Amino acid sequence: MQQKVISNYEAAKELYAQHGIDVEEVLSRLEKIKISMHCWQGDDVRGFLNKDQDLTGGISVTGNYPGAATTPEQLRADLEKAFSLIPGKHKVNLHAIYADTDEKVELDQIEPKHFQKWVDWSKEQGLGLDFNPTCFSHEKSKDGFTLSHSDPEIRQFWIDHCKASRKIGAYFGEQLGQTCVTNVWVPDGYKDVPVDRLAPRQRLKDALDEVFAEELNPAHNLDAIESKLFGLGSEAYVVGSHEFYMGYGIQNNKLICLDAGHFHPTEVISNKLSSLSLFTDGILLHVSRPMRWDSDHVVTMDDELIEIGRELVRGDLLDKTHIGLDFFDASINRVAAWVIGTRNTIKALLRGMLDPIEALKKAELEGDYTTRLALTEEFKSYPFGAIWDFYCAKLGVPVREEWLADVKTYENEVLLKR
Ligand code: RNT
Ligand code: ZN
């Protein structure tokens, strides 16, 4: 390890120790946290099952940066490259359309065997897997409705797809010895103001009851449900709103997924974690970055990411929170997008752990808001970067922007040749 990285670390460690922060303990805690990296940044949410279908469901990927993965082998190679630049051991989040099979299989017929290559690879790489049914980009979802569709046949198709997905999740969990989170998100909604807001929600509720009817071993699979405020083409009404899923999740013991991009512009998920934690056994996060109409920009170290990190640490919520990422940007190198978003998310957790939490809580309890603000602000320029650099070096990944050269080489040698 570079001498400079070590000496900067030692100096920073001492500064933090003066506030009672045990940096070594922090780093060993950080190392245990797994981030679920979403496979779909690697190929613009295309997948391999219905390749010629357009991306639908009210989400959109813009940009035409070269090098997108077009085969499972390419996607896995890109994921490996990204993971080699990110400290720690993590998970990959798959969607059903990423099945790796030569069979022409319909979504309601998918089975664990169609994902065996992903399982074998994950074992070999020491990774966990999470899963999602894909209720979009399909002939049967083209009018914007799936689980809440008014046509019972179409509804049944999506119910069967979600049921099949949970079984695949359970298989992942059992095979890899770590719980898989299977997250249900459906795009269902109306472009314009509906007459009947209730009936689709009633249908969604009933459909979910069917999807979740079979008990699965929670050590293998945990179910999550994800709400949204609006999508492209569902501006006026989304069936699966936040209230809908919050109610459903609490009543039925499901993980509630909070996507950072799925709320009103000034509404933040960091302020929801504490409340939800009091009423649920677990939470799933889709760490993302909303911008105007888009909910899925690459995660940067913005105020909200810092606040999410703080909340998870301060509320002691890391054990009950599953941290996933959700963004897709096709205007930059896709491997870099993963590396930037994932490193930032881990770094935000580190920053949260390096705050003088006890002193801040004490000041707040005593009504000393001056100290609270002063300490908070001073700590923003404490040398967390030196701790981060050491952590990266210790776990054998590039320090600071060194990783970029590696991505550029990969781009020239692999991505641009596709
Ligand atoms: C869409 C949801 C959902 C998707 C992925 C691809 O708004 O956030 O999580 O982004 O399932
Ligand atoms: Zn999401």
UniProtKB/TrEMBL annotation:
Record function comment: Catalyzes the interconversion of L-rhamnose and L-rhamnulose.
Signal peptide: none
InterPro entries: L-rhamnose_isomerase (IPR050337), Rhamnose_isomerase (IPR009308), Xyl_isomerase-like_sf (IPR036237)
Protein name per the record: L-rhamnose isomerase
Residues the record lists as binding Mn(2+): H262, D294, D296
Recorded catalytic activity of this chain's protein: L-rhamnopyranose = L-rhamnulose
UniProt KW keywords: Cytoplasm, Isomerase, Manganese, Metal-binding, Rhamnose metabolism
Cofactor note (record): Binds 1 Mn(2+) ion per subunit.
Pathway: Carbohydrate degradation; L-rhamnose degradation; glycerone phosphate from L-rhamnose: step 1/3
Annotated Pfam families: RhaA
GO cellular component entries: cytoplasm
Gene3D superfamilies from the UniProt entry: Divalent-metal-dependent TIM barrel enzymes
Cofactor: Mn(2+)
Subcellular location: Cytoplasm
Lineage start: Bacteria, Bacillati, Bacillota, Bacilli, Bacillales
Keyword Metal-binding: yes
Single GO molecular function: manganese ion binding
One GO process term, biological-process aspect: L-lyxose metabolic process
Enzyme class: isomerase
EC number: 5.3.1.14
Family according to the record: Belongs to the rhamnose isomerase family.
Gene: rhaA
